[in-house]
Amino acid sequence: MTIVLNPFSRQAEWLAELTRQIPDDEVVTWPDIGDPAEVEFVVAWVMPRSAMKTFTNLKAVLSLGAGAEQWQKEGMPDDITIVRLADPEMSSEMAAYALYWVLHFQREFVQAGPNQATNTFEQPSYTQAYEYPVGILGYGTIGARIGQLFGSLGYPINGWSRSGGSDPGVIHYAGLNELDGFLANSCAVINVLPSTEATTNLLDATRLSQFAQGSILVNIGRGTVLNQDALVEALDHGPLRAAILDVTTPEPLPQDSPLWDHPNVHLTSHVAGSTIVRSAAKLVVDNIERIRAGEDPFPVLDRSRGY
After folding, report:
1. Catalytic status, residue 222
2. Has this prediction a pTM greater than 0.85?
3. Rounded to an integer, what distance in angstroms lies between the CA atom of residue 230 and that of residue 208?
4. What domains appear along the chain, each with residue ranges and CATH number?
5. Which of 84, 145, 207, 222 is catalytic?
6. Active-site annotation holder among 162, 262, 270, 290
7. Is 134 helix (H, G, I), strand (E, B) or coil?
């Protein structure tokens, strides 16, 4: 039996790491896989739908990303176990990204460039961390890591999820009925929600109007969560001060999108967090061993929830 490898990038690094960690297995790279009936596991970011149907003895897909929308598209087999990637090292990268941008505005570092350009030495006043609540939209594995980082630095933490939580030191908001309160009480909102039917266009014009005056939005989840036309309105007329978008819809943006030139939009090219081969490969191998031992892998895609 074989393991098919098809990462988004760094194929040679992935192949070397998996071969090192499971030396007794045959790891082959897509599309040179040999007999599809011999495929036991797929380790990939995405695979052609037609190919997936030929893997008649497939036990599971080990996805190389936290998101799972690519495995739920029309025509993709829906009876295959999909194991999502929950890599603590990638979560830490995303937390660091969020911290950078929150500091940029909370500490008024945004003023440093204009001051330097005019030879001005000025120390702007700013809101202290303990008075600057950070809201995390999607308080799961990644959201909790972001919350831990900000909490350790003295920021009040608001967490929103579908069902709430009980993490100490976090004010939890649950469900759509409490989303307005979450938004209104957060100076910075960091979105880490996945792309599902329930989250698509969640931050529409009505929701954006519920943000605290002068707050910022950091989107490192999925672009589908945000209504980008409504975002421009919320930036031009309030209440939003700025938006940091690492993800957009589509990606990349069309050349005529107003977001490219908007003075209060900061765009990065889907770099908030990357898969760390060293640590991610260990998680993949651990899950392969669990499945072979008759144990449950973790975390498994829940198709009813979309993640």
Report:
1. yes
2. yes
3. 7
4. 2-87+275-292 (3.40.50.720), 88-267 (3.40.50.720)
5. 222
6. 270
7. strand
How many C-beta atoms surround the C-beta of residue 210 within 10 A? Answer: 15
Residue among 95, 132, 143, 105 at smallest CA distance from 212? 132
DSSP H helical ranges for 107-195: 112-117, 141-152, 179-184
Sheet of strand 215-219: strand arrangement: 170-174, 157-161, 134-137, 188-191, 215-219, 240-245, 265-267
What gap in Å lies between CA 183 and CA 65, rounded to an integer?
Answer: 28
Query: Among this protein's residues, is 237 annotated catalytic?
Result: no
What does the pLDDT profile of the chain (307 residues) look like in tens digits?
A: 999 999 999 999 999 999 999 999 999 999 999 999 999 999 999 999 999 999 999 999 999 988 888 999 988 988 899 999 999 999 999 999 999 999 999 999 999 999 999 999 999 999 999 999 999 999 999 999 999 999 999 999 999 999 999 999 999 999 999 999 999 999 999 999 999 999 999 999 999 999 999 999 999 999 999 999 999 999 999 999 999 999 999 999 999 999 999 999 999 999 999 888 999 999 999 999 999 999 999 999 998 888 8
- Please give the Cα distance from 137 to 143 (Å, whole number): 7
